[in-house]
Design goal:
By secondary structure, the chain is an all-alpha fold. 68% of the residues lie in helices and 0% in strands. The longest helix has 26 residues. The C terminus is likely disordered.
């Protein structure tokens, strides 16, 4: 009788998992922070929850040691989606709080620009937002994004180029859409 045995997980032991944590912690945090737009404490909480879930499921991971980041990103992505849904349900139940602004003008402008950028990014389809996050927040190479997203490298490159062009057209500090003719 031939019994198929699964190979042991490369992150099953505590030292192996700790090594994977040390290598990938910052990348997972940056990925989550890029998707959520902050605050930092929330991104840190989601990062911790990602690794907690990964720890609980570490024996089921069957990939290669150098590919564990893709698995962690998938866990993080699901957590961000779940968190977003929870926030949407909670927001429907509570009236919005009035904004308080007691910062210097430069800080206020910076916050407004970040808000505008976050609006533009959130308006993108989730696949485009994820591709930009992997490329610019995590520094992944196009070939790695292509493998992770199950796309061709050319498709990833074209998608990045077109998405950035679209964002440039929509960008303005005042929040008005316009085409930048100065390029």
């Amino acid at each position: 009788m031939n019994i198929l045995r699964r190979k042991p997980s490369p992150i099953a032991s505590a030292p192996e998992f700790q090594a994977a944590y040390e290598v990938n912690r910052l990348s997972v945090f940056r990925y989550i922070y890029s998707l959520t737009g902050g605050p930092q404490a929330e991104a840190e909480d989601l990062t911790a929850e990602t690794f907690l879930r990964a720890w609980k499921a570490r024996h089921r991971y069957q990939g290669e040691q150098d590919r564990v980041i893709g698995w962690l990103i998938q866990i993080a992505k699901r957590l961000v989606i779940d968190d977003y849904r929870r926030e949407q349900r909670a927001a429907r139940r509570q009236p919005p709080a009035p904004p308080t602004v007691d910062t210097p003008e430069d800080t206020a402008l910076h916050i407004e620009e970040n808000r505008r950028l976050a609006e533009l990014l959130v308006a993108l389809p989730s696949e485009l937002r994820e591709i930009l996050t992997l490329r610019y927040s995590l520094g992944w190479q196009v070939k790695d994004i292509a493998a992770h997203m199950q796309m061709t490298e050319n498709n990833v490159s074209v998608t990045i180029h077109r998405t950035l062009a679209k964002l440039r057209q929509q960008w303005s500090p005042e929040g008005e859409s316009h085409v930048d003719d100065a390029e």
